[in-house]
Every structure is written in C-alpha cells, then in structure tokens.
Amino acid sequence: MLMGDPTTQGIKSTNGLATVNGLTALNGLATSNGLATSNGLATSNGLATSNGLATSNGLMTTTGGRATVEYIAKCALSSGDYFDKQDNYGTWYRYYGGLGIGSGWKAGACDTGCQQRVTACLLSHLNSTGNRVPIFVNADPNVMPSVGMSMPYASGSDAAMQEGVFFGNVIAQNPPLAFYVKGNAFKASVPGRLGASSSNPYRPFEGYRPDESGWYSARADKLCQTKDIGDGEHVDYSQCQASDAPYAYWTRSWLNVMTTYVNSNYNGSVTQNFAVNTFNFDTDTTGFKTSSPGEVWSRSGSFDFSNGVAWSTSGRLEVVDNHGGRRLCPGGDREHVVITKNGGEPFSLTALRLNHRFDTAASTATITGYVKGSSMRKQMTVTIPATTNNASTANVAPTFSGWDNLIKVEIREVGSMFCVDDIGLKS
Questions:
Q1: What gap in Å lies between CA 144 and CA 236, rounded to an integer?
Q2: What are 228's strand-pairing partners?
Q3: DSSP per residue over 305-361, as a string?
C-alpha cells in the first residue's frame, strides 16, 4: 500500500490552520466541467465508496488526478482520518484528512454547502507551479468550526500577509465557479498564486455594493463582510457578496469562504543585513491618498505602508503638510498605520516620530511589533504632547532597543488623528 505524505496534512492549532498549497490547475480544476461531472467523483456517495470515487475512470487513473484526490481528502476529512482507494491498475493509495470541512463526505453525500466549503479549501491551496508553499487559512468558525479564525502569529506562523479570500463551486457546478478577492496585503509575490498565472482557473469576483455607486473587482474590503478575529484589533472575512447594479440589493452571495495568509519568505533563507533605511515623506505628493485598506499607496525601498482599518472608517492614508513638514497621516479616527517589508521578510524598527494631525490635547499612541515565528509582541505606549497653532515641536520620538526580527509594526492612536514621520528601519 502506498502511503500519502503525512507532512502535507493541515496542523490543527487553537483556531486557524497552518498548511501548504501545491495543488495545480492541471489536475482537473481548470476543466470546463465540475470535478464531479466526468472524473469518477460523485457528491451523492461517500469518497471511500466505489460509487463516490471510481477506481476505473477519472481522477484515480492519473497522477494529477490522484493529487487532486489528495487535496479533496485533506480539505474534507478531519485530521487523523483517512480512506484507502485503488487506481485502475489495482494499486492502493491512502488519503489523509486535515481540515475537516466536509467530513460527512467520507461515507455519505456532499451537499451544496459541503461542495462550496471544499471548493474554498481547494482554491486556497492552488498553486499553478505545483510548489508546496506554507499558507495559513482562516474561515468563519460558525461555518467551518474545524478551521476557525486567529491571527497567524498566535499559532507561531510567520505567514503575516493577508493574501486573499477564495470561494465558489468546482465540485458539481457546470461550468465550475472559482472566485478570489484580494486581501489587505495582496502583492502576487508568491509564484503561482492568485493573479500570478493565467493558467489558474479562478477569476476575480466583481460587482457593485448596494450602498455605493462604484463597481469593484476582487476587493475584499468592498465585497466581503468582516468578522472580528477575537483580539479586538484584526478582522477577517465571513462571506462575500455583490450586486449587479449600484444602490441595489445583494444579488450574489457566497457564505463559504476561506482567507489565506502567506509569506513569500517561505524557505527561511532571508536574513537581516542591518542596512539602515531612514526616510520621511518630504518628497511625496501632498494629498495622495487611498480609500481602500487593501491598497498599498506608497513604497520606499523594500518597505510597504498600508492602512489597517479598525472598526468602520473611511480607511484613508494621506501625505499632508503638517507641523512644518510632510507627514503620513491616517484619514480618520480609529485607524492605524501598518509597516511591513515587501515579501514579509523580517526587519528591525529603529526610530519614528509621531505628532497630531490637528491642534488637539495630549493623547497616547500604541506601537506594536509582531515578532517573526512567535506569538510574542513588543509594545510601547507613548504620549503625544498637546498642540496649538500648528506647532512643529509637538511631537514624540521614542527610542527603540531590541525591536528586531519583526514581521509587522502597527501604530495606533484612539481618540484623535495622528501623523508619523522619520521612520528608521533595518532590513
């Protein structure tokens, strides 16, 4: 009996799952028909039965097809579960479970919800190059409790970049539907992932919002519903919806979605060379802004700046003339600035300067650094002095020592609007 590779199984954490991608579109996902149409796969019978997964035709008869079965089992069955299946030559294969989002399919039927959950999982694992790249997946615990939600760092994962959200039905839908929307750190930096190859079967989810006139393509922040992950600071996505016309009702809704986090430094070979990069915003265009936290508005060297939005806000970042210089300022209260290195590699924070955007009383700001491969956080609370008459001296420049091996820094001030300048980073 040939045994499946147990190292490819999902690893259960408190919430969320550390796993790998590597399923290729050539395995049958890119066909014009659903997997269950002509591949010896049935949704009315269990995977472990001869009527649910045939041995003489379809997926079990080719190397690529058996790889697809491997991922179907990994997505559907629970960790520790498995089934055995023969190919058309009588050779036995063992397929292990992992995520458990369709466990009833082992011996029984897989209804529409099951098909959509397994599809979301298959698409999140798709890599057109066939590479096995570490990913971290989240799903609404009310829909997929065996997966659940947490921040990757809480489980020791360094997959810090929220890549995208996947959903559809490639099992029984004909033609198959495979959608993605971009997460708040989408860079298409991992070879073979969404947006990086035309051979991938998924396409961007597009449409209008009922409360806006704009038409959006593949934007999670506009077309998906947020859900608090649990630490009061971060959100993920529970469902994605679109309308076919502005100011109309939702007409297309997908309730079974999966969010992925990636780190393109997946081979662990990148180390810090401690070359200091200190920069401010004096050369940026005044008033440049984004209305989406899913868009990176500015880049300096290999570092990215994006706007993480807490609660429901306008989600803007702007470069404005403030306190005698051009500063980076969130566009609304309860928003925060996020600093990451392009690709998710580690870096060090050496300095930054904070001040108020408008004349205001003294307030506090929290600076949080997330350590690569650890649940440990570095945190500092500083007081930003009161300002009057647009004073240029009302700022604070805390000293950082030992803020190394970071994958992300968040700067947050609640109750006022602030600006950041003179950021020093080691990469």
A1: 14
A2: 235
A3: EEEEE-SS----EEEEEETTEEEEEESSTTEEEEEEETTS--BEEEEEEEEESSS--
Instruction: Report the chain's terminal Cα–Cα distance, integer Å.
Output: 49
Average pLDDT over residues 245-263: 90
Contact 67, 132 (CB under 8 A): no
Report the distance separating Cα 180 and Cα 258, nearest Å. Answer: 10
Average confidence (pLDDT) over 175-199: 70
Query: Cα(37)–Cα(287) distance, rounded to whole angstroms?
Result: 54
Contacts of 139 (CB under 8 A, 6+ apart): 101, 117, 120, 147, 148, 149, 256, 257, 258, 259
Beta bridge partners of 208: 215, 243
Nearest by Cα to 380 from 409, 404, 356, 405: 409
Dump pLDDT digits (tens) for 1-28.
222 332 232 333 334 566 767 676 655 5
The closest of 90, 51, 87 to 69, measured between CA atoms, is: 87
Q: Nearest Cα to 2, choosing from 65, 86, 68, 78?
A: 86
Task: Tell me the CA distances in angstroms from 57 to 13, 54, 358, one per residue in order.
Answer: 37, 6, 69
Q: How far is Cα 331 from Cα 343, in angstroms, rounded to an integer?
A: 26
Cα–Cα nearest to 118, from 54, 166, 62 = 166
Task: Return the residue matching tokens 């996505």.
Answer: 237
Question: pLDDT digits over 87-122, tens only?
Answer: 999 999 999 999 999 999 999 999 999 999 999 999
In 37-99, the DSSP E strands lie at 82-86, 92-96
pLDDT per position as a tens digit, 54-87 = 999 889 998 888 988 999 999 999 999 999 999 9
For 194-222, give one letter per residue: b (16+ CB within 10 A) or e: bbbeeebbbebbebbbeeeeeebebbbbb
Strand 203-204, strand 177-182: pairing: parallel
Q: How many angstroms separate the Cα of 372 from the Cα of each of 158, 256, 341, 344?
A: 5, 30, 12, 9
Q: Name the residue with tokens 């259960």.
A: 12
